[in-house]
Design brief:
Length: 113
């Protein structure tokens, strides 16, 4: 018997061939996130971004440009939501909330598609 979503196709919604990723330190207060607070000239990682959808869930996938190896992904069930946050001082950047292999949260800033 098939499990829920087993036969759903994954559709590619958007591909951005080059994105920059910046590691963001934990937020100290409820202050809005600002892109100007990070070293935008020194990204921590550069690669490709693909936005895909399977069923009712979209996935923002960050991949190596050459090998396609997955660097990180964030499932997006609703927007705005916990997985994707806007940046208060720019429409070109957004924040992804991803889970590392140990279940810890990591926030990455990247360019908008």
């Amino acid at each position: 018997m098939a499990t829920d979503g087993q036969f759903e196709y994954e559709s590619i919604l958007c591909v951005k061939p080059e994105v920059n990723v910046y590691r963001i330190p934990p937020r100290a207060s409820n202050r809005a996130i600002r892109a100007a607070d990070w070293k935008l000239d020194a990204p921590d990682w550069t690669g490709r971004m693909r936005v895909t959808a399977r069923g009712k869930v979209a996935y923002v996938k960050l991949e190596d440009k050459v090998s396609g190896e997955l660097f990180a992904q964030a499932p997006v069930e609703e927007y705005p939501g916990v997985a994707v946050e806007t940046v208060s001082d720019s429409s070109r950047y957004f924040v992804l909330r991803i889970m590392d292999d140990n279940g810890g949260k990591t926030r990455l800033q990247t360019r908008r598609c």
